[in-house]
């Protein structure tokens, strides 16, 4: 039986797909076929997959930490207990080799989430934590630093465990931990992901295990018995909202937590927390500090919002071509509700000689990363997509977003968070942007709900009037 995949401060080659391969795959399959679904919902993005993939895309594409201007809200069971924060890594009493790792990774000072989380994560006795933080704000570095601070590399058995919802995300976390711990002697990391096998009844010698729930649980079960949950000092659940929303993963997480020693430090990190999820998290994490972000809608003040009445695909497409024919647009994103609509728009634009790229769930994560990289570098000016990029994928310098279809949920009501994420791709970093919504008789009511929810004006636009179109960017 083969040994587990182990990271020992060695470099990995990043998986890359060429633009040519992506184009070939689009021509061969993406524009030709739909995946099947027994409930005949193949035209919708798979929500669990989309959110996990979006997080991975963010990690793959991130070139810098983002400044999150949202206010942080801290909740404690004992409000009189001290709450610490730090402005410098040097104030955390870290091991010198960990400071070296941080500097080598380009960290110069803690991000906002790190300022509050790290002093509490590194305190003694260990403090449990539930934290909400977007990808790109340093959350992975925060829990990686906490894990590496708690382990003893002279002890050759697993002491820290980190779970992620997908093997790709687990690989990204492994890379961060490896880079951060590159100066730690004898550090070894085991990747508990699908396909990696371990001998039965032989205890792992790696101090850190990073993997997906199913494989991790299998390794810890009496059948494999590769490590003991009772010996763990730290347990991390990343992308907790995605993990907990998946029933199978949720059950495994509960079983793992039940097997942990009472003094094991537990951390849950997530980009978003809906109320049912946060309540579940409180049940499995004893006496935690909870760090949440207060929603900031300040960015909407930098976005001019319009709507255009369109009663069919053809009228929407004519409005689209009129707008792009009269406006000087830097980069734009066009959101469609289904893969089919997105493909139809791409086909029509391509036939009319308009350069554009398709981004949807039909591409695998690495292909999507390549498309977004081209868009970010300015090699592609127009992106036609489904909700796959609405979940926190940030591309700078977008000055126009068009909702070819409004984001409508299965209950027929508008999805306010998705709408905010979509139009939030423009009007970033203090720049002004434009968002245009195509609506028909059936969705006009949803637009009214969006207007009331956000309290920002959405003006009517006549897409056949050149003067009106030219004025929207003034």
Short recap of the structure:
Helices cover 36% and strands 15% of the residues. By secondary structure, it is of the alpha/beta class. Strands 1-5-6-4-7-8-3-9-2 form a nine-stranded mixed beta sheet, with helices on both faces. A seven-stranded parallel beta sheet has the order 12-13-11-14-15-10-16, with helices on both faces.
Would you identify the CATH architecture of the largest domain? Answer: 3-Layer(aba) Sandwich
Structural class: alpha/beta
How would you write the strand order of the largest sheet? 1-5-6-4-7-8-3-9-2
Helix content: 25-40%
User: What is the 3D form?
Assistant: elongated
Biggest sheet details: 9 strands, mixed
How many domain regions?
Answer: 2
Query: What would CATH call the class of the largest domain?
Result: Alpha Beta
Q: Which stretches are low in confidence, meaning pLDDT under 50 for 5 or more residues running?
A: 6-48, 63-69
Enzyme class: hydrolase
Catalytic activity: ATP + H2O = ADP + phosphate + H(+)
Pfam family, one: Helicase_C
InterPro entries: DEAD/DEAH_box_helicase_dom (IPR011545), Helicase_ATP-bd (IPR014001), Helicase_C-like (IPR001650), P-loop_NTPase (IPR027417), RNA_helicase_DEAD_Q_motif (IPR014014)
